[in-house]
Design brief:
This protein is an alpha+beta fold. 65% of the residues lie in helices and 16% in strands.
């Protein structure tokens, strides 16, 4: 009994420690991506698709192998029927028949060969689709992760502003109490503190929502979910790519979307060849063996055998056993043969199937060109976005520096009694907006450059 209690205590301790660990764990970007790729339901489904493609190939290879089938039957005859010797008798009987047959297709217009090639393409296509899915999931995780970091920095800014507002309110309160400042300045400071507190609450809500979004993307519980803080300090924001041509050139040759579209064309060509195979004759080879057993109800398994003739020329017969083993051996027969089937006319069905396959191939060929154009347009747009965010970052950085100087200048004027609380808070609000714009521009630039790296198959976790 004590041993059982100890086991329960240990189990509870284990689960509690595991829960605490899960709550305290801070997910890194790399861990988040790896977990998503390993546990995402769509990824698991894609892996099953790969296994299905392997089974399709195994099925296609089986078309080259001979088939073998065995059969057996049990039957009862009542009344008149033809027996095994070809005589009509009127005796109830029961019988068995056994057979073994095999066959193989020797030629069917290369259908089996093309079906096998198509199954091999299916495996390659499923791998490419999995790569596309993983790439998209990785990019989505990076975006969600950066969004959390952005919102966390927004909280820090909001907390700093609340702290400044509280200090300012205390300072103004003392000045109002001493009669140096008017009570209106106190109302302005309180209003600013309320606005800063509201901004802080909104920032916290944004963090919570962005954490929820990433947790849902990882398909894990959002309660207690945390990520590791990363200090993204752009000492020098530089776009290392001179133009989009280099990226487009690489992507057209290497991106899985293009490879997948090319495989679709190859698959359509094989569909066309398979449709054309119906024009060709089919040659097959077959062989079988069969035997039977028959028993007349109420009689012994015997048969009359002619053993000779007497001196008068009359036949001499005797009864011999004719059981299951004897009949099985005596009735055993074999046959082999070839079969040729030549298609002549089937109501234009083959013609229609061939034309449909040809049109489908032409359509899919256009899809490859469309995929190239779409990829090119996406990359050019991504490059333009990266350039725009770089300019935005540089501009917002200059604006932030300017607003910081303006705020410091206004603070000095306020301390000298030249400026009012309202004027100071107006300048500080512009500074807050400049900080927000700078932060937004920084993370936009980071993500847009990650998108360009994504198209070049570079690691996006670094």
């Amino acid at each position: 009994m004590i041993k059982n209690k100890n086991s329960v205590v240990l189990a509870l301790a284990f689960f509690i420690s595991a829960y605490v660990f899960a709550q305290d764990k801070e997910w890194t970007l790399k861990e988040s991506i790896n977990y998503a790729l390993e546990n995402n339901i769509a990824v698991k489904q894609s892996l099953i698709d790969q296994e299905l493609a392997v089974q399709d190939l195994k099925f296609a290879k089986g078309n080259f192998l001979p088939t073998a089938n065995a059969n057996a039957s049990q039957s009862w005859n009542f009344g008149s029927f033809i027996d095994q010797n070809g005589s009509r008798i009127s005796v109830d009987s029961r019988g068995n028949s056994f057979g073994l047959n095999t066959g193989i297709t020797l030629f069917n217009g290369f259908r089996n060969i093309n079906t096998k090639k198509q199954a091999e393409l299916g495996i390659e296509s499923s791998k490419i689709q999995l790569n596309i899915l993983k790439n998209n999931i990785s990019l989505n995780v990076v975006n969600a992760y950066l969004n959390i970091l952005f919102n966390k920095e927004t909280i820090k800014q909001a907390q700093d502003q609340v702290k400044i507002s509280k200090e300012s309110l205390n300072q103004v309160q003392e000045l109002v109490n001493s009669g140096v400042r008017a009570r209106a300045d106190l109302l302005v400071s309180k209003s600013q503190l309320a606005a800063d507190n509201e901004r802080l609450v909104n920032a916290q809500n944004s963090v919570d929502l962005s954490l929820l979004s990433l947790a849902q993307l990882l398909q894990i519980p959002s309660e207690g979910f945390k990520i590791q803080d990363v200090d993204i300090n752009l000492t020098e924001a530089v776009l290392i790519y001179k133009d989009s041509k280099e990226i487009v050139s690489y992507a057209i040759e290497n991106r899985p979307e293009i490879k997948g579209a090319q495989l679709n064309i190859d698959n359509a060509e094989l569909n066309y060849q398979i449709a054309r195979s119906a024009y060709y004759p089919t040659v097959s080879f077959g062989a079988n063996a069969s035997t039977s057993y028959q028993h007349l109800q109420g009689q012994d398994d015997v048969r009359t055998i002619l053993v000779g003739f007497d001196t008068a020329g009359n036949p001499i017969t005797e009864l011999r056993k004719n059981g299951f083993d004897v009949q099985f051996k005596d009735n055993l027969g074999y046959n082999v043969g070839f079969n040729l089937n030549i298609p002549i006319f089937n109501g234009f069905k083959t013609d229609v199937n061939v034309q449909r396959a040809k049109l489908s191939k032409d359509r899919i060929s256009l899809a490859l060109e469309q995929e190239r154009q779409t990829l090119t347009a996406n990359i050019e747009q991504a490059y333009a976005d990266a350039k725009a965010t770089l300019l935005q970052y540089e501009s917002s950085k200059l604006s932030l520096e300017s607003q910081e100087l303006a705020y410091q200048n206004e603070q000095d004027k306020y301390d000298l009694g030249v400026s009012t609380s309202f004027q100071l808070e107006q300048v500080r609000n512009r500074l807050i907006n400049a900080q927000s714009s700078f932060l937004n521009a920084k993370y936009n630039f980071v993500f847009k450059t990650k998108v360009l790296d994504f198209y070049l198959d570079k690691p996006i976790t670094e």
